[in-house]
Design goal:
Elements lengths: L1 H7 L7 H8 L3 H15 L3 E4 L3 E4 L8 H8 L6 E4 L5 H10 L6 E5 L21 E10 L8 H16 L4 E4 L3 E4 L2 E12 L4 E10 L16 H5 L5 H22 L5 H6 L7 E6 L2 E10 L5 E5 L2 E5 L4 E5 L4
Parallel strand pairs: 3-4
Antiparallel strand pairs: 1-2, 4-5, 5-9, 6-7, 7-8, 8-9, 10-11, 10-14, 11-12, 12-13
Helix pairs in contact: 2-3, 4-8, 6-8
Length: about 325
């Protein structure tokens, strides 16, 4: 089925006879595969008598060779899957199989994409970037301090570099344009964090998605913000370059060296917020973050510090 898609990706008309000849199947078999493409991947295919079949819009598929070429000195191995449950889950399986780190896992679509706190990450075929970088961490907990915030900075810089205006950060793991989410980060760790472990840096970026009814929060995409379609291969390459830059800086100097830059780009700095932890809500004002990436809030006139993967931050109505 995906071989057929690659024949159609140029957005031109192709006759059923030509497609069948290229695939070595009958025209009726081509027709069945086209129906599968529409049903399973949500693609729109035009069918015109006498002209053949055409994708409603051309597709640029992920290409590991092209990504590594554009990434230059960032030469992490890149593995691309047509479909997987999630790139983080795929990466975790590869760690179990003793794949040498670092390496990058990408997918054209995810059937069970995951965000923080168990949320579903909407993952349509060939529209967005589903990216997981696996690192081997040695030297204990210091290498993990503020790591998700470091990744957020790298994502933000990659989006700005490629031409998306108004991008900023929201503690702990979101990248926003205004109040709308454009990217999210999910870190997963296996092994002993006090000794040697592997960490999976999962990144989802809304690239060319223009509509969906499945997202339960305000969202946007690169295409909606910039008014143009983007090459996901170029984005993957730029993201790799920025991740390498910020991760090396973090490894050498620690998170405290990046703390001020993160705070400058925090869109909710100084804002009145509610911090949600399960059924509990804490109201306060964002003061910033500490040298380990924890959130500093002024609560009833007193500074308090909060950290943890299950916390959620929301703007208060009066902010």
């Amino acid at each position: 089925m995906l071989t057929l898609l690659k024949l159609l990706k140029d957005g031109r008309f192709h006759s059923g006879q030509a497609l069948g000849a290229a695939l070595g199947v009958s025209r009726s078999a081509v027709w069945k595969q086209l129906q599968q493409l529409e049903a399973e991947l949500g693609l729109s295919i035009h069918k015109v008598r006498g002209r053949g079949y055409q994708l409603a819009a051309p597709l640029t598929l992920l290409d590991p060779v092209e990504i590594r070429r554009m990434a230059g000195a960032c030469d992490w191995p890149v593995l691309v899957f047509d479909s997987t449950d999630s790139t983080n889950a795929e990466a975790l399986r590869m760690i179990e199989q003793r794949q040498d780190a670092p390496f990058v896992v990408l997918a054209e679509r995810q059937t069970a994409g995951r965000g923080r706190r168990g949320r579903k990450w909407v993952s349509p075929f060939a529209e967005n970037l589903y990216y997981s970088l696996v690192l081997r961490i040695e030297g204990g907990m210091r290498q993990l301090e503020g790591l998700s915030l470091v990744v957020g900075l790298a994502v933000m810089q990659a989006l700005q570099q490629i031409g998306v205006p108004g991008v900023g950060l929201k503690w702990p793991n979101d990248v926003l344009v205004g109040r709308k989410k454009i990217a999210g980060i999910l870190l997963e760790l296996v092994g002993d964090p006090a000794d040697v472990c592997h960490v999976v840096l999962g990144i989802g970026i809304n690239v060319n998605m223009r509509m969906t009814s499945e997202v339960d929060q305000q969202w946007t995409s690169m295409r909606l913000e910039a008014g143009q379609a983007f090459d996901r291969n170029q984005l993957a390459a730029e993201l790799g370059v920025m991740l390498q830059k910020y991760l090396e800086r973090h490894q050498v100097d620690g998170f405290s060296a990046i703390q001020a830059e993160w705070e400058r780009n925090h869109l909710w700095q100084g804002r009145a917020v509610s911090l949600i932890a399960g059924v509990n809500q804490i109201d306060g004002e964002v003061l910033g973050i500490d040298s380990q990436g924890a959130l500093r809030l002024k609560v009833d006139g007193v500074e308090k510090v909060f950290s943890g993967g299950e916390l959620s931050l929301r703007l208060r109505n009066d902010s």
